[in-house]
Amino acid sequence: MADAVGPSDVREVPPYWLTGASGYEDAVRRRQASSAPLVLYFFTDWCPYCKAVDRDLFSSAEADRYMSRAVVRVRINPEEGDAERRLADQFHVTGYPTFLVLPASSTDPQRCSLFREGRDRKPASPQQLQDRIEAENLRNAQRLIREGYERRRAGDPAGAVALLDQAVAAAPQEADGWLQRAYAREEQGALDGALADYGIVALLRKDSIAHERAVYDLLQAKRFDEAVACATEWMEREPRGLKPVRQRAWAHHQRGDEIRAREDAQRCCALGDHAACAVASPIGS
Fold first, then answer.
1. How far apart are CA 248 and CA 235, in angstroms?
2. 76 pLDDT above the threshold of 50
């Protein structure tokens, strides 16, 4: 678990706007490979609010920097052609500007405001734009996590893994997705995959749930050397914890290293586990 590499939140997306109906088709293909949200911006040349958004929001370096690394983006003017008009009808566009977010792994577009709150209709800040897009993406990932959990509870770990694969790709910083996928992989009998996911969970969460579950699984699988190593990491994270020392003592005992098992029993005794004190007593005392 110490070798786990943290999940990246950088998405492979084109660093520019795609345009028109052909750009939309290209965006759909690119989105499938990137696990990124798709954003659709419907505008017209005569719309004053569209001009303000282009000038004050989309032209900003901060907004462009975010979108060039995080979303697949398409600009569509429905007045440019029949194909563009059909897209506007498909997405129920009735006014301009219309900005839609299709979260990763979702076909359900969400309308997203490009303006600040209030009646003055000032364009949103780049940070507000980013927060709104990422909030929609996170909500969809959390929906996938819930559905994955329900599949697990229904006895379908393979179906759960399929959903949770989408969730962790869409929102790699959401620890619950990795944790639920680890559980589902366990239930499939894919221990190494589960351990890899626990490694990510350990990086994203401050508690010790990933280490505790991983040590238990390694002991059950009789992989005692790995259980010792994982319990040692757990002890570093929870230096006053009794449970990781107990588990490491048991792993030492199971692999036949009674000297180290006794040393850990002495640690347990010092931490208040009186049942371990007899085990920790020197041989022949």
1. 9
2. yes
The pTM is what? 0.88
Residues in CB range of 68: below 8 A, 6 or more apart:
13, 15, 16
Structural domain including 219 reads 206-285
126 near 145, Cβ under 8 Å? no
Does residue 39 fall inside a structural domain?
A: yes
How many angstroms separate the CA atoms of 250 and 183, rounded? 23
Indicate the residue among 95, 113, 131 that finishes a domain.
Answer: 113
Q: Which is more confident, 239 or 285?
A: 239
* Domain closes at, from 86, 113, 140: 113
Decide if 18 contacts 29 (C-beta within 8 A).
no
Q: Please report which helix (H) or strand (E) contains residue 12, including its range.
A: none
pLDDT number for residue 121: 85
CATH number for the domain spanning 278: value is 1.25.40.10
Nearest of 208, 210, 153, 206 to residue 184 by alpha carbon: 153
64 assigned to some structural domain: yes
- Cα angle vertex 87, ends 86, 90, to 5°? 85
Res 2 pLDDT > 70: no
- Candidates 151, 226, 142; CA nearest to 188 is 151
In sequence order, what E strands does the chain have?
18-19, 38-42, 72-76, 98-102, 110-111
**Rounded to an integer, what distance in angstroms lies between the CA atom of residue 98 and that of residue 74?**
12
Give burial (CB, 10 Å; 0-12/13-18/19+) of 272: exposed
CATH of the domain at 85: 3.40.30.10
pLDDT of residue 68 exceeding 60: yes
Which tens digits make up the pLDDT trace of 6-37?
776 668 899 999 999 999 999 999 888 788 99
Average pLDDT over residues 43-68: 96
pLDDT at position 107: 86
